[in-house]
Amino acid sequence: MESPDGAALTGVLFSSPWSWFELEQGAIRFDYLDWVAEAACSNTGLKVAFLLDVVRAPAWVFAKWPDARAADSHGRKYELLSWFHEEARKQALQVVAEVTKHLVETHRDCVVAVQPVFNNEYEARYTQEHDCYQDYSAPALSAFRGWLRSRRPRIEDLNMRWGTTFASWEELTPPVLEAGSFPGVDMSPRYWDFLRWREQAGADVFNGACAAVQAAGALCFHHVPEFFTVLDAVYSGGSMLKHIASSPHTDFLIIDSGLRTPYGTVMNPTKLRMFVGAAVSYGKPVHFEAAVRQDSGGSSNAAYELLGSASRNALMAGARGLGVTGWLGKLQPDAQLAAALQPPPVECRGSGELVGVFIHIDSCMAWHGLQLERFAADLLGSSTGGAGSSRSGGRRFDRVVFVEPLVLTAKELDTYALVKAAVASLPPSRAVVMRLPANNTAGVQLQVHEEL
Fold first, then answer.
1. 181: left (phi over 0), alpha (psi -120 to 50) or beta
2. CA–CA separation, 223 vs 46, rounded Å?
3. How many Å apart are CA 388 and CA 316, to the nearest integer?
4. How far is 401 from 433, CA to CA, in rounded Å?
5. Residue 43, Cβ neighbours under 10 Å: how many?
6. How many CA atoms within 13 Å lie on the side-chain side of 266?
7. pTM assigned to the model
8. How many Å apart are CA 207 and CA 244, to the nearest integer?
């Protein structure tokens, strides 16, 4: 690897699947990992981050634990590790700790950060394969039933909550979910109970994995997509972000975008301010990553222009750093790429307008489909006057955009009432109230779910 000095890059990320560096149990090929690290550490001045992809487990893991394979809502089993299989997960975290310790000690001051990966962008997605939700493996279903039973010991009480007729806990199953198959919003308690269980269980896995990374001497980070925009709303996993972004075991976040709408058209890069700003609000350093595609507008110049605009909007929302993925063979690591990743500062008229956007992230999980696109454009138009962002930095907001939630838990209701009262006290010129779209001709109706 040669030093890409012309592109002014400062770091590089390498992805290494578990199946590649531990073909036999207990025989980690540290030399393989060292070769990868040394490609950057010896030949460039770049800092190195590793993505340790433990979901792609070696064959011996599934031979030892045949039920450790993830399964989807249609019963398909994959050669992918289920994070709900306790023994296999513990083995994976042990490997993460050992590999991280070795990389940090062997390549001191070069390898600085590690991301434990449980499927690409699993932090905000239920699925990657066949658009069917995961995980429906036997260990996952057992964990879900145990979680429910600890809160509602009587199956009759849960049937009343869900409107179901399960005769026993062994018969109980979560809803069969496929991305995009449900029109409009899903307000059923059965869906939301499944969502909250997966959110809490997943956050525990990610936070535990990052604790192992930190204990081994590296920074730990997560890689998250457009977690509450239309493109990823079908995966309904973005609500997990609040647990992992606020965790002391998360050192920084990378927010990724393919810069495309669900229909394949180029997105308005100004939308990046919404989800970069939302991530920044948790107080952790946030870096923005653009996924470069072959069809980035018809020419390499269009690709650079789109990348530059995306970079500018991410920086305006508070991003600390910028990066690209999927660029090999499409863009050159040269001064033109450097210019796109280092856009000139935006000059705001006067002191700029500071707009606070308040949106209930869990309510954005109500969709299994693509119905949020028009709303995203409306929200964009209401919140991006001038060069403002969604961070206060000690300043009072000049304007507030408040998005009415669709579904709350009983614990959230008091907070909602306080925020709504504060918004109502502002003059109309300083407050805009918006509503999420819903499949209800009578208008949006707020639902409050009783805590399990």
1. alpha
2. 20
3. 8
4. 6
5. 11
6. 18
7. 0.88
8. 6
Separation of alpha carbons 441 and 428, rounded Å: 26
Evaluate whether 407 touches 449 at the Cβ level (below 8 Å): yes
Q: Which two tokens stand for residue 414?
A: 């008091």
Among 123-132, 172-181, 370-379, the range with the most confident prediction by mean pLDDT is: 172-181
pLDDT tens for 72-85 read 999 999 999 999 99
Report d(CA 84, CA 143) in Å as an integer: 7
pLDDT bracket for residue 376 (50, 70, 90): low
Judge whether residue 296 has pLDDT over 70: no
Give the max Cα distance, the chain. Answer: 67
The one-letter amino acid at 405? P
Q: What gap in Å lies between CA 169 and CA 151, rounded to an integer?
A: 13
User: Under a CB-based contact definition with an 8 Å cutoff, are residues 99 and 44 in contact?
Assistant: no
Most confident of 165-169, 173-177, 335-339, 440-444: 165-169
Q: Which token pair is 358? A: 């308040």
Count of CB atoms situated within 10 Å of the CB of 302? 13
pLDDT in tens, 184-227: 778 899 999 998 898 899 899 999 999 999 999 999 999 888 76
Tokens 């969709």 identify what position? 367
CA separation for the pair 214, 208 (Å, rounded): 10
User: How many CB atoms lie under 10 A from the CB of residue 154?
Assistant: 9
One-letter amino acid of 41: C
The residue assigned the tokens 């606020």 is: 246
Joined tokens for residue 216: 């081994």
DSSP string, 392-424: -TTPPPSEEEEEEPSEEEGGGHHHHHHHHHHHH
> Which of 102-116, 140-154, 196-210, 371-385 is the least confident region?
371-385
Helix ranges, 317-345 (H): 335-341
Residue 47 has pLDDT above 90, yes or no: yes
Q: How many helices (H) and strands (E) does the chain have?
A: 14, 14
